[in-house]
Amino acid sequence: MSSFPEAARRELQDKQLRANLRLATDTIRAKRGRVVDEVPDWEELREAGRAIKTATLARLDEHLDRFADAVEAAGGTVHWAADAAEANAAVAGVARRHGVDEVVKMKSLTTDEIHLNDALAAEGIHALETDFAELILQLDGDWPSHILVPAIHRNRREIRDLFARTIAPGLASDDPAALAEASRRYLRARFLAAKVGVSGANFGVAETGQLCVVESEGNGRMCTTLPDVLVTVLGIEKLVPTFADLEVMLQLLPRSSTGERMNPYTSLWAGVTPGDGPQELHVVLLDNGRTNALRDETGRQALHCIRCSACLNVCPVYTRTGGHAYGSVYPGPIGAILTPQLVGIENAASLPFASSLCGACSDVCPVKIPIPELLLHLRAQAPKPAGKHAALTAAGFAFGGARRYRLGQRIARLGRGPLLRLGPLGAWTKTRDLRPAPRRSFRDWWERR
Ligand code: SF4
To answer: What is the pLDDT at residue 390?
Structure first.
């Protein structure tokens, strides 16, 4: 994985990407603004969302036990997965037991996080992506760049050309309806033949053992109802304690994500019902770094995230670089605070710096995550490059006494231009303007008068 600055420099060269991003994020942002403005108690709803998440994480162990008991009481099987390998093994085990070489899969960031498709492929099992955007990426060997709109970096013409090369030879139109029809024709037979479906979930309800998915296309509902066997991979932070808590989340999420009053499809299921839907339900509860984040009272607020992507669409960094620069399935501001906690700050040290700290992200966050505060918290933990450490130590020494400060000013005046281009300062000024030290300082001027 390249560091964020290296990857961002590469992505910024792509003018088409920037144009696609701008159009898509401007459109979603405007829609969100309109539907949020029509809710008179939006701020109270945000506060309720924040309070639910804080209370849930404070007693997550109890909620998890309650949820697992409720799933099993309803006829489901719970698998506890400490990491990606255990979660992947649980899903592959179910698929193997049913002797399938293909599973149908709905869009799920959690399964992307654990690289489930690669793990299944290693066992000879193809995970067919059925979300329109995820299918595009799978057909082209590409990967998501936005939480909600994974193929945001692709435009209609590119998609038409890809479909014509792969699933719809001869496709000439790039009309959205024609593109959707091409994918529908390709997917429908596979849905009907599938024995095993794999899903993520937006929420799990601890008191009832229910799982909840919101989506726009209906492919998720097909994945979770048509196959005989369903495996749902759920991050442990996705729980809400009661069914009533869902009411708050289901108002916050669609408005913040797609800019809709409610999602076209909201699916809820619990356990197994004889003769209706999957007759075998497996729920994989995934940790994969979450309990590490939970230990840190400030950092754990990143686990409040309901993956709406509103923070991406307003971020001046994300909207220029796109998601691939973050090198993680969680891009943008939420990725900058979540990924370092999931994979270890030493493995993603540049991400907390991928921000101007303007605060636009926390202004729109439906569960009021103080993202800039978390960015600063993680920056303080990030290993510092040696040059930067030396420069800051020297600055601390110079600023620590009046005589040293004046001496530093004189040296800076002597060095004016060249000093700005040398060593660590040169690296810093490559992408920033630093005004050269003035020929005469205020103190000199004052003393002379
Ligand atoms: S951090 Fe907040 S705004 Fe960003 S994706 Fe998560 S819930 Fe949405």
So the answer is: 81
- The CA-based angle 256-137-216, given to 5 degrees, is 35
338 is written with which tokens? Answer: 């979540």
Tell me which residue has its CA closest to atom 6 in ligand 1.
305
**Interval between CA 390 and ligand 1 midpoint (Å):** 36
- Amino acid letter, residue 353: F
Cβ(255) to ligand 1 under 6 A? no
Please tell me if the CB atom of residue 305 comes closer than 6 angstroms to any atom of ligand 1: yes
Q: What is the pLDDT of residues 250-294, one digit of tens each?
A: 999 999 999 999 999 999 999 999 999 999 999 999 999 999 999
CA 289 – CA 147 distance, rounded (Å) = 19
35: Cα separation from own chain's centroid? 23
Q: Is 367 in the pocket of ligand 1 (CB under 6 A)?
A: yes
Tens digit of each residue's pLDDT (9 = 90 or more) over 115-163:
999 999 999 999 999 999 999 999 999 988 888 888 888 889 999 999 9
Q: What string of H, E and C letters represents the secondary structure of 396-419? A: HHHHCCHHHHHHHHHHHHHHHHHH
